[in-house]
Design brief:
heterodimer; A: 117 residues; mainly beta; 7-stranded mixed beta sheet; 4-stranded antiparallel beta sheet; 11 strands; 52% strand; globular; B: 115 residues; 12 strands
């Protein structure tokens, strides 16, 4: 199957700083990427839909100014957590759709564990 | 709004035995996809099986099969000949056809496989 690479896998940052997470589709072009958040032993909650060359679409309750999403190319989307606080500590997962396929399988990155201290 | 419900937070199965994980969903759409994803301790999400709502035939992938009951809005996953490597969190997910790739996930079922 197609590969989606997410980096870093783990990051620890100080409260008040910003951290960037990258999501890359390695062997296909992804016009749309998705960012999820997962709390321990809970489900994946969609945060936003990232569209190449346009503004991201955020789910209700997700702060646009806090979670900045950029999808500058067909293979890269980034999520920046700005002015991070301990409550932002979570597991963040991206997924991407291979637009060349006839049906819509979503491939997932390995996830990023963010810890804000 | 679409919702996906998994009523079994945890399930256990003996190695080589069969286990069924339950999932129900609520939607007003007639055309959609249903999925089962596996999330092992590595946290990497892996697609196990998918079902198109317009297909009456239940999907099968090797040891994994589903029981899709559209009228009842039920989508259970059966794992046959369970293996230690099947131990993971399993998520049922829903996607409306044409709705990009926006997935709605259930709360998950933690599957333990015992020797």
């Amino acid at each position: 199957g197609a590969v989606v690479s997410q980096h870093p896998s783990r990051v620890i940052c100080k409260s008040g700083t910003s951290v960037k997470i990258e999501c890359r589709s390695l062997d296909f072009q992804a016009t749309t990427m998705f960012w999820y958040r997962q709390f321990p032993k809970q489900s994946l909650m969609l945060m936003a839909t990232s569209n190449e060359g346009s503004k991201a679409t955020y789910e209700q309750g997700v702060e646009k100014d806090k979670f900045l999403i950029n999808h500058a190319s067909l293979t890269l989307s980034t999520l920046t957590v700005t002015s991070a606080h301990p409550e932002d500590s979570s597991f963040y997962i991206c997924s991407a759709r291979d637009g060349g396929k006839g049906w819509t399988e979503a491939f997932f990155g390995q996830g990023t564990r963010l810890t804000v201290v | 709004a679409q919702t996906v419900t998994q009523s079994q937070p945890e399930m256990s199965v003996q190695e080589a035995e069969t286990v069924t994980l339950s999932c129900t969903y609520d939607t007003s759409e007639s055309d959609y996809y249903l999925f089962w994803y596996k999330q092992p301790p590595s946290r990497q999400m892996i697609l196990v099986i998918r079902q198109e709502a317009y297909k009456q035939q239940n999907a099968t992938e090797n040891r994994f099969s589903v029981n899709f009951q559209k009228a009842a809005k039920s989508f259970s996953l059966k794992i046959s000949d369970s293996q230690l490597g099947d131990a993971a969190m399993y998520f049922c997910a829903y996607k409306v056809t044409g709705g990009g790739n926006k997935l709605t996930f259930g709360t998950g079922t933690q599957l333990k496989v015992e020797l």
